[in-house]
Specification:
alpha/beta; Nucleotidyltransferase, domain 5; five-stranded mixed beta sheet
Length: 125
């Protein structure tokens, strides 16, 4: 059984995803860019359902939530279709923008799925 995580305050949030073939890394930030939570989901319909449930702002409508991810490979297309079917808003982030943010923020420029999700959030906002 998956843990639900913290309840998100009524504010605009960005749900950033670093997509991968088996598991997606998720970072949720508030309107000020503060990280609220971080978790991973499976690349499956059940994973998307978990994502929608865990990222639902408390007492808010879905318009207060924006999903952001890179258009790399083909994995993003399935995620986009599922979000569209759920009437969710999303933006596609240029992978070069993610790279430039990581380059500007980190001296070691280490690339991991978790750090990429952290960089996608401000790029998508």
């Amino acid at each position: 059984m998956a843990t639900v995580g913290p309840r998100l305050a009524c504010d605009h949030i960005t749900v950033a995803l670093d997509l991968a073939a088996r598991e997606h890394q998720v970072v949720i930030v508030d309107g000020a860019g503060k990280r609220l939570t971080r978790f991973s989901i499976a690349h499956s319909r059940a994973g998307i359902a978990e994502l929608l449930r865990r990222s639902q702002p408390q007492r808010c409508c879905a318009a207060d939530r924006l999903f952001a991810f890179e258009a790399t490979g083909h994995v993003w297309e399935a995620s986009a279709r599922h979000l569209e079917a759920a009437d969710e808003r999303y933006v596609i982030v240029n992978p070069l923008a993610t790279f430039r943010l990581r380059e500007a923020r980190s001296m070691d420029r280490t690339k991991t799925d978790r750090t990429d999700a952290e960089q996608i959030a401000p790029a998508g906002a």
